[in-house]
User: What shape does this take?
Amino acid sequence: MKCPRCHANMADRDYCIRCGYMKNGKIIGEYNPIDKDSDLKAYQDHYEEMVWNTKLYKPFFLGCFYFSWNRHLLVGLVSGFIGLALYYLLMLLLVSFPLLDNIPINEFQQTSLFMFNAIAIIIIRIIYATVANTICLSLDRKKISYVKKKYPEEYMKKLLKQKPRSFMQVLMHIMLYLLFFVLFLILAKVF
Assistant: This one.
C-alpha cells in the first residue's frame, strides 16, 4: 500500500515511516520523523556550511560567480550586473560631487579615490558573502519542490543526477560576465 499523503511504501506497517500517516487517517503526533531538509541535504553537498553560513571566504572571493558554482547561472549573471550597477552608481556619485568639479586632482585625491574604490568593492563582496548562501538554499528548495511535483516517484534519482559543481559553469559565467561588462561600458558611455 502506498501512503496517500507522501506516496511512500507502507508495505507491512500500519503507519508511514516517512510522514507519520496511519492507516486510520490520523498522523502520529505533530512531530515529523523525517527532517524537512533531507532532500536538500542530499542535493546540496555543502548543506551545513550554507545553513550556518560558515566559510564565508568562498562567496566573498567568488562574488557573483559563487551562484554559478552552486548551479544558478542566471542568478549569478543578474547579481553580477546589479553589483556592476551599484559600483557604477557609487563612482558616479563620488566623481560628480560638486566640490570636485573645479579642483585639479592631486595625489591625495587619487589615493582617496583608490581607497573609496577598494572600500566599495569590499562592501559589495560583504553583501554577497552574507546573502549568497540564503539565496542559493531558497532556490534549491524551489527546484526540489518543482522536481517533486514533476516526478513524484523518482524525484530523488533526478535530484542526485543533477550536474555536480564544475569549473566549466564558472568559466561560462566569467565569459558571459565579461560580455555583459562590455555592454555595460557601452551603455554607460551612451548615457
